[in-house]
Automatic annotation (TrEMBL):
One of its GO terms (cellular component) is membrane. The chain crosses the membrane at residues 60-77, 83-105, 117-140, 152-170, 236-255, 313-335. Signal peptide: none annotated. Pfam families: HlyIII. It comes from Oryzias javanicus. Zn(2+) binds at H103, H271, H275. This is Membrane progestin receptor gamma. The keyword Membrane applies.
Amino acid sequence: MLSLIKFPQVLTINQVPKVFQEDCIISGYRQPRSSAVDCILSLFQLTNETLNIWTHFLPTWYFLWKLVTVVLMQTAWQDSFTWPLLVFLSSCCIYPLASSCAHTFSSMSAQARHICFFFDYGALSFYSLGSAVVYSAYVFPDKWANSYFHQYYIPIAVFNTIICTVLACYSRLGMPFLQYDHDVTRRFPECQSPKFSKCLRVIAFAYPYLFDNIPLFYRVFLCSGEGCTDDETNMLHYNHVALAFLTGFLFATHLPERLAPGSFDYIGHSHQLFHVCAILGTHFQMQAVEQDMAIGRPWLTANSIPITFTNSMGPALVCVVLNCLVIALFSLPLLSGPAEKQPKKIKSSS
Ligand SMILES: [Zn+2]
């Protein structure tokens, strides 16, 4: 059946506007004004985005299966001890889904591309909050349970997710209304200072990750003696941390395509490897958290902060609402204005 479908021709880097260009990827670009149907069909055509889409689309279903299993098997709704796990598993479903949708529909227009990736950044922020909620409930070292840091940990994590989304969205186009409107579709900070823009985006995701992991790093790397929660789960945490750093390294360095531009356009470029490492890291993180939850339940129930709506589902809802507002703020200037002006402006800005 697929042989009956005529796929659009793929383009080289010089044939697409600057906003669609990726560092050291020379070929395999989709048409910059694809229809939604073309975007969906491109899942079955080898382009430089195809594996970016599939490497997050398939794991979405695996994580969704994990979430459904927990909801059905553990009667999660009645048991508040399970709520942080539900928040975390939801965030693990949403971030790869948002990412695969962003990569699928990012070639519809310059505006669509920016808005798609704003949602991608918002979903990653939500994942960082999901990690914080689940760490607070099950992963904190025993000796830090109920400390001041523990009590303020989730509110700070909520604040961090907003900073993260704002910084990441800002790194694409600058400040909405002040530095761009519907006519400016080039990547404003990236055009003027690409390194600053890249740096900003790395900080936007590294900072909440590092903050969320303070209790885990302390527990597995520094803590010794009594009250350190030193058990067999630590090996799973090591795997997750190693993969998380590899993920950050790939995102920041653009290896291997930087060493041989054009050689990894379709298979093996850094963004695909970044997706795969992120998913594997999340998988190990999920296993570690579930194990911590099962082993630690009696001690945590007796000694740690009680799990309620206000330290599990509540912060997740606040994070979703605030992130949607941030995304709307950055997207609105791109949506308003005459659409027919787009092609001309895109060309002039490339
Ligand atoms: Zn991606």
